[in-house]
## 1
Amino acid sequence: MNKIFNPEPSEWREILKRPTKSVEDIEETVNQIFSEVQKSGDAAIAKYTELFDGFKTEETRVTAMEIDESRNLISQELKDAIFLAKQNIEKFHSAQKTEKIIVETSPGVKCWQEKRPIQKVGLYIPGGSAPLFSTILMLAVPAALAGCKEVVLCSPPNREGKVHPAILYTADLCGVTRIHKVGGIQAIAGMTFGTETIPKVYKIFGPGNQFVTVAKQLSTRHNVAIDMPAGPSELLVVADEDANAAYIASDLLSQAEHGADSQVILVATSKELIDAVEGEVETQLQQLPRKEIAEKAIENSRLIYVENQDTALELINEYGPEHLIICSVAEEFYIENVQNAGSVFIGKFTPESAGDYASGTNHTLPTNGYAKQYSGVNLDSFLKSMTFQKISEEGIKEIGPAIELMAEAEGLQAHKNAVSLRLRELE
Amino acid sequence: MNKIFNPEPSEWREILKRPTKSVEDIEETVNQIFSEVQKSGDAAIAKYTELFDGFKTEETRVTAMEIDESRNLISQELKDAIFLAKQNIEKFHSAQKTEKIIVETSPGVKCWQEKRPIQKVGLYIPGGSAPLFSTILMLAVPAALAGCKEVVLCSPPNREGKVHPAILYTADLCGVTRIHKVGGIQAIAGMTFGTETIPKVYKIFGPGNQFVTVAKQLSTRHNVAIDMPAGPSELLVVADEDANAAYIASDLLSQAEHGADSQVILVATSKELIDAVEGEVETQLQQLPRKEIAEKAIENSRLIYVENQDTALELINEYGPEHLIICSVAEEFYIENVQNAGSVFIGKFTPESAGDYASGTNHTLPTNGYAKQYSGVNLDSFLKSMTFQKISEEGIKEIGPAIELMAEAEGLQAHKNAVSLRLRELE
């Protein structure tokens, strides 16, 4: 692990650098598949499903029978856990609902903002070794609360043409309206253009590998929105001498096991803690099934000693971590002053895993420094705000002259005229 | 004007088609300027300012003296109008503030969402014939309400090296922290990378020509967010036989004067109204200074007759207009059921110009059908939501076992371990 003591602010940029990858060679593949899916629809989807997933099929939609079956393939214990998580996620995201507020900005000028659901959304859930059913909870629960009419989920089939039962079970439980066994670039292309069987959606959510990430970027050129730009997962822990080194090590490792390119950083105001955490990481690492992955991420990790809280805070805000854990007696100071972080975990009994699964907050969060300007997924991600206004005779008399003046000053005579015409009739 | 009667739903897509333009040739220019600005900073900015704006300078920052001077160059009448508009915009956007709500999702599990300002934002205001100071109100007022620390405004100088006084005056009034006389692609590149004098920002807002639009798109590849994808301005009016043809014509024309590629559409349940509006447009058009522009937009406009409200509604939702004016006795039906529109104007005394300038709603709105998934600019556009959670001993005992089960089922042992470690110590 890389230990760094009292770095100069001029070195921060280099120290906090994230791994970046070139996507240019991927782009060509993505463009190719997009244009084929746009042209040939399901036929192109079938072609690439066979090529990438080794499964040949014409029919990608998951049937009611397959969903029924999935219920018997999940243990009652896991069902109960999923249910608890779902409840908490619902409670947290329900609290984000806002009411319509009518503001009379000038006498007779009534304006209001209302949020209405994005009618059609697409959720992408990767396949592979780990079935990420928790991500379905994070996306389908707020989509249902928002009132999205069509919630399409795509996830790749395995070689036998199956999707993991935990995915089917959770999707059905959370109100996903249709599931397609399609993965990767071809899934994103299908939801972008629509095919004979896959509906075109207006916004695509969800994680994925580099191919999916580039495909989502490309979809934004075809009138589709995406949840946010994606990057490797990150965790920054800020801690002082009283923090528990074993807990911190376990949190760093839980982030490190996501991928070899995961970023884990400890910022501490205690040198002893840094050494203790380093030792604990070594020990705990040995017992992990995903040791090889975590090891690589840990190699690139940083243990940074700084002299005081102010410097620690500045460093956090400069980095803008996806996840921030605060283990410090000065937790109030950090809570109040942190400006850039996706999700913040406070105190020794708040591991990041809690937010990944069951506390109720969302785990789809901005990485790569995007916490500086992006929100994590929340209820609003599935809504768009619209404004409304209704002006009375009194109202247009009140603000009309100002509009005329401003339109005139901007050289927009027809804008002025639309008001003048009305004011003349009211004289 | 194109009149269409009772079109089949299968024809809608063609009828509602927006003009699209290829941007590939622009991209090359944009890429070139971006890489020069990234490499050479202010020197590259100066080079392109001389090339495109015909003004040679080393110093692009507007001085306090220039701002002082601008105050004397604006009439008191216009100042009063700007002040009224600013007040209304403040009232409307202030009402969008949300409180932090703490939710105890399970006993001992406290979660909350808080919105914090994006620290550094950039506003782009085009130059040219019309000084769009109204757009400064729409962007700088919510930026100030949100609490953004640095608000940078770029606007191109004219050949004498001046920016229109209305722009300087409004920017200063609304709390813009620095103004640079830089326009076009080089302005967007400057705010994306930062130069010796222009700060790097996290999110860029504002309208612009095709070059600016493509430059904003490119900036998103360099860790910058943008307000929304841009396209030509649009207005759809839905009206019935009781609507005032002259008013409707004036509204259509106010949109048409924006640009030759503006989109104006009337959807009416009365054939007589369609003819009357057509006549009124012809008459009013003759008196407009921007007649030539408006004429071109009107050529591409559509007057669509449909038999009933339900069809009209479906058509509106299919199109997703930036601006929607409702002039119908059935206004409640439309208000309640419209799903896709940026800003909605209700009744005969609510011209779209009102929202452009002074009613208080924002005029930076989704075009090109993006009303299906994007909000117009609002207070939240300048904030990002962060989540926080603090779990007690009781809390982790409550949800810990569910986390362990789910992490195990997803094959993420280190995630499980972070909880197990804590639960063991609490036994």
## 2
Amino acid sequence: MHGRVIRVGDMGEFALIDRLQRFLQAPSGSQVVKSIGDDCAVLQPSPESELILTTDSQEEGVHYRLDWCAPEDIGWRCLAINVSDIAAMAGWPLGAVVALSLPPELDVAFVDGLYTGMQELARDMACPIIGGNMTKTTGRVSVTITVLGEVPKGQAIYRSGARPGDEIWVTGTLGGAKAGLEALLQPDAVAGLPASHALMCYRRPQPRLHEAQFLRQRATLHSLLDLSDGLSGDLRHICQASGVGAQIEADAVPIHDETRRIAHALQADPLSFALHGGEDFELCFTAPPTQIDPIRGDFDQQFHRSLVRVGTIRKGKEVTLKQPDGSETVLPARGYDHFRPAEG
Amino acid sequence: MHGRVIRVGDMGEFALIDRLQRFLQAPSGSQVVKSIGDDCAVLQPSPESELILTTDSQEEGVHYRLDWCAPEDIGWRCLAINVSDIAAMAGWPLGAVVALSLPPELDVAFVDGLYTGMQELARDMACPIIGGNMTKTTGRVSVTITVLGEVPKGQAIYRSGARPGDEIWVTGTLGGAKAGLEALLQPDAVAGLPASHALMCYRRPQPRLHEAQFLRQRATLHSLLDLSDGLSGDLRHICQASGVGAQIEADAVPIHDETRRIAHALQADPLSFALHGGEDFELCFTAPPTQIDPIRGDFDQQFHRSLVRVGTIRKGKEVTLKQPDGSETVLPARGYDHFRPAEG
């Protein structure tokens, strides 16, 4: 930080709203009729589309720490987790509104950074920031973002459609965000180890928006979500919504080399990071056996990443883990609960 | 509060989400395709409509105090201020998503009350609660609601359309919410005075949703907003967006008898409550001279309330106040700024 500190409380609400508009480029699409500056933003949806709406909050000290992330990372992350929910319905975003709760003593430079990071992702994902609200808080910085999106009528992919026999797939390696978080929590224990991939997973998660479009257009998917709580917790969400069980194959779960090395340095099991870590924001979906193999090559080529099959949907209710030796155990649900954090 | 206290932290995120669904009735319209329980809510908009989107937050200790409002009032109020923004575009709501930040030690009964009050307004306004998010906070209870609505294509009414010669109208008495707030702040000073109207204005503001529909359908409105910051501040928003000035006639501003008596008991000017108080959530609009008079009778009959003309849009930039003796003064902007609260 250089130069004079200007506090949010010195600048005032309306000057701050004016200031932040400089970070927001005019949206390139024609769907935005009216952006910031009136009682509501106004959008023109496509004909024959359904609307999809999602909201999520991030609070300092609960979801991130200021010594772990730059303000730009926090802005990116807050928008990314919402856009990821749009991807998880196989839709695309129309626009976002941002509700900020700010302590009056906060440096305006922090808010500038937040909006800079948000705008980077907004541009990458064609998700213009079209409105918001700003209020004082007696607590810490909190960012609540709501994203409106659309999907062709009847083509949203829900959690509730998984059927016995479906293959379970993920769009990338798992456990990276957990490895990044642990590297920040225990820097001495991982000193000297490469961690740039893991830190990027944690600080700048990539919503798999284009990947979800590709999959919806090229294959029949029975169920789809994004991995925010961890594979063990989120797969349980699919199973409960669909009335089915699942088997995960331990040696099929994709784990990045950095994640393995960081886990080993911490005397932890890399598979535990991948199954329970959460916040990877890769997609997890189920599809009938013949659907995915024929499109894997095109997917690799287009996105420079691989679709990986991690298990099978079965009858029943249990989610189990099959070891390479053939033994099978019931997988405990250890996904993240905001009010009762699970152990690592 | 009776019975055993169950804390949010004891119940956990997912059990709490399940619990809250009992407070939410199935939406009666056919526009909701998928409600709570997936990555996004899914909605079917009307053909040929534009979408409108607004968000607002309310935090304990900043926007309300627990000794002033029941949890039901807080829930009502949080949704009402958002639905009021939908009314201020002359649209109607499609659905709302609710992001709650809750301290783990909070009694679950408080959350029940919050949702009970929200659901009361949601039913009255046909604005189903279709999704949300719940997270822990290290601070106080905070509620951020986002409402999606729609309006026939090209028929949203903005702040920016006011023209010199327009009449300025409001949909009801002003200053009531301020009187209610002062009655709560200084109970001894107003002891014995009737305050039920004023308290209702503060605790249970009524979005003028149906009134805005009536006005859009029956007259040509040039500009429209809801009075959240106070007439002096909000009329300035219209003037700045439209590049015009305005004159308010002091003796035309409608003030409820209770508001007058409470102001007098506090040695305050009732007109100051009405001009600068804020949070009345009546509509303020401008229209050409011949538009409103012919529909006033029907409006009265339908809504049991009166449209009141409070002034005139003029060339220039200033907002002035004309006294009954013909003198005219520039009206200072004393609307609410979240980071720099104005004096009473």
## 3
Amino acid sequence: MSIKIGLLGFGTVASGMPFLLKENKDKITAASGTKLEIAKVLVKDDDEKKRLLAAGNDFNFVTNVDDILSDDNIAIVVELMGRIEPAKTFITKALEAGKHVVSANKDLIAMHGKELIRLAQDKGVAFYYEAAVAGGIPILRTLANSLTSDKVTRILGVLNGTSNFMMTKMVDEGWTYEAALKKAQELGYAESDPTNDVEGIDAAYKAVILSQFGFGMTIDFDQVVHQGISSITPDDVAMAQQLGYVIKLVGSVEETPSGIFAEVSPTFLPKSHPLASVNDVMNAVFVESIGIGESMYYGPGAGQKPTATSVVADVIRIARRIKDGNVGKRFNEFIRETKIAHPDDVKSHYYFAINTADEKGKMLCLAEIFNSEDISFEQVLQQKANGEQARVVIITHSVSKSQLVNVTEKLQAVADFKLLNTFKVLGE
Amino acid sequence: MSIKIGLLGFGTVASGMPFLLKENKDKITAASGTKLEIAKVLVKDDDEKKRLLAAGNDFNFVTNVDDILSDDNIAIVVELMGRIEPAKTFITKALEAGKHVVSANKDLIAMHGKELIRLAQDKGVAFYYEAAVAGGIPILRTLANSLTSDKVTRILGVLNGTSNFMMTKMVDEGWTYEAALKKAQELGYAESDPTNDVEGIDAAYKAVILSQFGFGMTIDFDQVVHQGISSITPDDVAMAQQLGYVIKLVGSVEETPSGIFAEVSPTFLPKSHPLASVNDVMNAVFVESIGIGESMYYGPGAGQKPTATSVVADVIRIARRIKDGNVGKRFNEFIRETKIAHPDDVKSHYYFAINTADEKGKMLCLAEIFNSEDISFEQVLQQKANGEQARVVIITHSVSKSQLVNVTEKLQAVADFKLLNTFKVLGE
């Protein structure tokens, strides 16, 4: 007997699946307890190019999703189309038809995961999506299976390969944001509209999913604050280096006394921090917890084979659970009431870059503003900027989100100061 | 209903278990599907000190293992005594009594795992040991559950915290081996007899277990070649740095066309390699595979809470499988016929440090010896050593174990050359 799979989509990742299933057949069959077989592949057009890609395989291309949904021989549907629609409709129909579903669609799961998970539960079928976060890194299953004994206090992740590639160029080679983006587009890492990658939206989708597995709470996408890398200047990068830091786009989810807080933002990482040496398109998830303490999971965040490997691991797990008779289990069984942190409880060190007239008394005035919000300095650097301007760079001690809002408003209200940038700083 | 646990030993790790079970009670109970309860703890002497440690807990100390083995209410036995005996006898008896067993005992599992695993299978009980490799890092479960879809080609690991702490001092601060060892002993990282840690024996135990999970093959401990860090000199460290490398004690298991090969040896890692920045007592396992490509799992390799976290994760998994009715499953289900690699197939770049009389023709003679074994140079550095001696440092291109043996013999046969050290070099 074999378990038959219906593939929705035959793009980069999907076309990597036949490779893995063939190349690693014995191990996969043994682990599944049965043969896995791709039976049908949904494509828009059943054209020559796809036939070439599929050469040597036994599956059929279909152009109507019903050919898969109504096929009683297909037990598992793998959705690799991306975007919200028609993926959402197809997954919904597949779950309704009693099929188990594997997806790598982070946008969809972050935006509509709740209802799809509920539907899967109602139907007693599996809905797994390891590949949706950090592609090849098995972070979701690790959080669900191994860190069950532990209590996670914070997750920090370099979750977007495109922006990390760009930040690596900006940090290691002093490139501007614009030059780094151009290179990323030339190499096919960034799309012509790079918004999702560079503005932290893609990483925010992943933070939503990580909050479920790490903290048992389902935060909404809209509740994830996100700030991208487009405002980072070579001056910021140089300042970071001088002060002992590397800037990266970091997604973070943490639990405070009042609840969890998730955000994606450029972050100053101490050079010795394990995330600081995660370069190029690689991803990593750094977990802080009361038991293990600090652990990190590093690997490719995207790409055909890494993503297909995670997808096939999900398929194997479903096949095995079908055999073991416990396939209805949720991918993530850790569920608590969702509570969002109060801004007073969310604290971090911060970097402020401020331009000011190079006149007597400006530093005093600046110190007074920070002091009025009870914010103290950890490092201060004043440099001659161009002309009559001086640049002041401040790394603060711990500051709450409430304090941050207040001090930012006060700084913006003083005409003499120009607040260039504010970024999070990870304390040592 | 609750599941009752019998603890064998109440040392550092064991006394961390009540903390985790209490601190993380809700999550652990939900994941287990039942309450977990330590019922009895086996100790040598039921003394006052232990009573203090155990204050506030409900379990009883016992001094006779039979009080646990014959207690039908105890379903899971957790062995945290270490060493071979009496741990082996106790685990054997526990399995024979139909109890599930969790152990963190790498020595025992590396030396006698095969028979214990077989016994567990015969009895239809679970025998799990996540904590035996790299303490807090969930590497075994990750290999068993997530990399099932992948084919591992090589595993490289910084697997021993004590020696890595020492290497970090030797590399970052230029300490001698002796100074680093003294410090490690002062801090309690190294025992008064540090052999197991510094000679690569402890790491070799872990390589045995990793070979099972990564490659499905059970290599014997005696088949793991191990070389320690005691022969590494400040000169070697300085040379490595000059050539772009960091030296660490690395355990490696790789598959060649003829079979697998495992060894533990000081290894030159390119500075940009993710393992190169794993410092102090931290461990990491770097996995190369056909699907994911490169992934790394980083965390504490020892310590009370990290190790207890891995142990409790195993206990949760067993509790859950008892509930799901599939508790007899092996921890590692990936099994192939064990084949050991032929020395011709095991290849690496190498570092040679050689002293020679500072006379004409010596470099020519050296080049002829390497050339006679078909070994070519990647980097060569000649320096004035003390007095009439010159030091030659060579990084070779790929060399097989057979070539390595031959060239070493030839070098040792020439009275003019003194072969100071030979270490593996990881190619970029």
## 4
Amino acid sequence: MGFEHISSRRNKLIREAAALAASAERRREEARFLCEGARLCEDAARSGVQIDRCFFTEQAQRRYGEYLNRILPAAQEQFLVEEHVADLLSSTRNSQGIFCVCETPENLKQGKQAFSGACAVLENLQDPGNLGTVLRTAEALGIGCVFLLGDCCDPLSPKVLRASMGAVFRISVVAETSPVRLRDLLKRRGYTLYAAVPDAAASPVTAIDFSEGLHAVLIGNEGNGLTKEAVALCDIRLTIPMAGRAESLNASAAATILLWEMNRGAGY
Amino acid sequence: MGFEHISSRRNKLIREAAALAASAERRREEARFLCEGARLCEDAARSGVQIDRCFFTEQAQRRYGEYLNRILPAAQEQFLVEEHVADLLSSTRNSQGIFCVCETPENLKQGKQAFSGACAVLENLQDPGNLGTVLRTAEALGIGCVFLLGDCCDPLSPKVLRASMGAVFRISVVAETSPVRLRDLLKRRGYTLYAAVPDAAASPVTAIDFSEGLHAVLIGNEGNGLTKEAVALCDIRLTIPMAGRAESLNASAAATILLWEMNRGAGY
């Protein structure tokens, strides 16, 4: 097949794509992001994410031909790029040589808050690996929407995309900087808001009945927990009752337990 | 105070300590390991781990004096080492300049199987970060003992120690290469053995009553799950019922949910 070749690192499209990988601001401005890897680009295509361009290397054609067969038809433009050009786009050590410039999905655009069911709210979560993992777990456990409150890292950054295994394409993720606006949005729809706190005097999560009504749990970051402002907005303070040393539970494990408890009674 | 100085990277004690950090075989042979970091070395001292030697830098004396005040009295020998010497011992990017050569705790020596309560068995877990995280979660959730079955990584490697936040000093961790021997050991004490499998036809973990009797859950590694041999040794196959995409739950999140469920009914 005759794909257009790119052999210069100074090619304009390559430089645009590299800028999307490097800068959250650029991603916001253009409402586009860069997706890397055979599996992740296929996930994007499968999930109906709009793919503007796909860049791939000759080696990728040999090794990941099956993936490319499913990715390339979904892309508006396709470019065969040389290895040293692909290096500019990669944020992994062993690049697979497949990259897609994608349009930001609707659910990640501000003001497009489609959500239902049990919700998780992550406040000031700045570690991309943690955010990706929580999104992945939220998808597995059937959480309806993940809100990113305050100063969270960009869910479309290369690291989050990788750690989330593409969950970000499949579940609703809504960024909201204002705790008050978020509270109002959730309360209008009838949600009960819970603040997860490391306080033995709070309600044990196991004592809360999540099977009726709509529920949203707010979870803070590893270093500081929830802000006082966020806790004050909630209806109920809840905690994870533990037999052992509570300080040993890391943020991601705590989030896993909370998300699990929210849908545990769902009876599937 | 007049501590003995070490300024040469060829010093015999330093080379011995570096070898302990580098080699699991060496740790087994000597029944000793190297512990790095202010917090972790203090954890070792506090947990009653026998400390043969402590090496520390001048900078560590200034920055982590309070920690050293608690570590040094617990060590049999103390050495002030130069930065370039400390570099030889460090497996982190930003070393705190505190290192202890410690004796392997009794509970980690083969044949010393002191355990009680809910147990987790991890099979062929080779990622040090995952192992450390699971040990940390097990401690938080009050799991009585973690067995390392088959070809797991060494719980005393620098990476596991770091990821476990010292949990390995406080909970029982028992390595056992033979599934049959492990089964016999657990069955003799009256344990029921569960194999965690990704199979919707297995018993939902939420349907099992862990509140009576003794229970051990076997958990496989991320890539392959449990071996057939391990599954065959168990009494009951259990699974995590999920509303979403099951393949999205990573091994560490799955382990968190299983450990949580084992002690969830404990009523603390």
